[in-house]
Amino acid sequence: MFLRALTRALILALSCTAAVAQKAPAADAQARVLRYAFPIAETGFDPAQISDLYSRTVVAGIIETPLAFDFLARPFKLKPNTAAEMPQISEDFRTFTFRLKPGIFFGDDPAFKGKKRELVAQDYVYSLKRHYDPKWNSPNLYRLENAKILGLSELRKQVLKDKTPFPYDQEVEGLRALDRYTFQVKLAEPAPRFHQEIMTDAGNYGAVAREVVEAYGDKIMEHPVGTGPFRLAEWRRSSRIVLERNPGYRDVRYDEEAPADDPRSQAIAAQLKGRKMPMLDRVEIVIIEEAQPRWLSFLNAQTDLMERLPNEFAPVAIPNDKLAPNLAKKGITMDRAPLVDIGLAALFNQDNPVVGGYTPEKVALRRAIALAYDVDQEIRLVRKSQAIPAQTAIAPLAFGYDPSLKTTMSDHDPARARALLDLYGYRDGDGDGWREMPDGSPLVLEYATQPDQQSRQLAELWEKGMKAVGLRIVFKVAKWPENLKASRAGKLMMWGVAWSATTPDGDTFLALAYGPNKGGANHARFDLPAFNALYRQQQEMPDGPERQKVMQEASKLMVAYVPYKLSGHRMATDLMQPWVIGFRRNPFVREFFKFLDVDPAIRAQEAP
Fold first, then answer.
1. What is the pLDDT of residues 235-277, one digit of tens each?
2. Residues 446, 463: contact at Cβ < 8 Å?
3. Coil, strand, or helix at residue 522?
4. Confidence category of residue 28, pLDDT binned at 50, 70, 90
5. 563, 558, 568, 51: which is closest to 347 by C-alpha?
6. What is the C-alpha to C-alpha distance for residues 406 and 418, in angstroms, rounded to an integer?
7. Are residues 240 and 284 in contact, defined by beta-carbon separation less than 8 angstroms?
8. Disulfide check for 132: which of 99, 156, 407, 542 has CB 3.0–4.6 Å away?
9. Separation of CA 100 from chain center
């Protein structure tokens, strides 16, 4: 059986790498083209409608926000992007005023009818308002509503009540264009990090032009048009995405700040300083869901970047976390950095009658499930030690992380799990080897998963863990975008997924459990008043020990009520072919390709 499985895997790998070669015909020898693969398919390219990492990565290369993170700077540093300067922030952290650089233009598009279209303040006002328009069902509305922009939530409620189109031209107090290049945001409550959390996330809150949205209507997911360095040249859904240099992109020069204690970043900064961006002519992205063909495509130089080396190849590619000599001999280099994320081994839908609820027996069931699942085996066997166990949801490098904190979230204790189940009445009453609900009705856990190899390995761990404590579990397999859609709608009982930060702040991880975020970040649909109060409290506080203490209290409630079984915080190892120049992982810059170069002469010399 093993040989048959291996043969099937090899056949799949060869067919997929052949497909990569067919989909990426030989380019002009002098073209600067970056080729790499997504492990998960995109969903589309409209900032108001997407929430997945891969779609947002593409959009961030096309559409821009006023602010951005410096690519090389550590500690992470904000700087103006389309803004002329850093925003003016009132002393009470309720008013944020952004002034844009004049002379920034959208990429050419038929929607502009042959005219050059300048970026103006009203574009950001319109783009943020789109998230409040029920028509677009924005999965990221929760972040704006949490910020409490004056007047917009009330306007949305009125639209829903009256069942009328959203009145984009109606001015609200909290979001206004003061002049052609200046817009202002006013909040009902203090939000010291509003500019960092919202105005850097191009994948969701970048500026789009109203004419483009109205021209393409329901097809807007297929037509991203922005002011950024790239434009969408080709899209074959779930197969291939091609970005090409935006010929109208403004004159932006490479000027990233490398840390004094990082010689590699210092060398990159010196080599690329003053170069006009983007340096690439094209970015070609293929979707290869299985890890083995994705790895082979890199080894065969059909892709230039192995972003996030699949865990199963870590022992051969980076033994003891060092680049293997055979790869180093080829001129391949590596970059290794924390992802600043949290692995959610399972979300427990609180609206589900089996695993949801806040009564002692429901909490006990979730705690028992969490104790029965072996996080250590997940990290060692599936992730090949490329993660550290999570004690709370907040990840390293994010404000609020406490490396000294130990919780029960990382414990594996089947005996304690069985005792909890016995104590709260989850017993095997009919002698079939499986526990029933306290009232004697069947107890069956349903876990949503995907068809790829890693998901299958994780499912095996879940099955093993649940069997050890007498819990029956069944698996519902679907493609990742389908599971995402079902999860947002509250239709899944359990699902394993990960959550990545867009800024170096722990708020984004606590947002996973904030009640009003149901259908957004809060896939568990958890809604505990005590937690909600702590979340709101820390949101309004400036950074400091007092805020960190409140965040820790909120984190402990997440551990106690178990809306999620947390697993680990992942490390990412990226491998680059010798002709790729400038890569360093910055977890808060999605559009990393904006800062890279490819040397076609080295590629012609080194590539097989």
1. 999 999 999 999 999 999 999 999 999 999 999 999 999 999 9
2. no
3. strand
4. low
5. 563
6. 22
7. yes
8. 156
9. 27
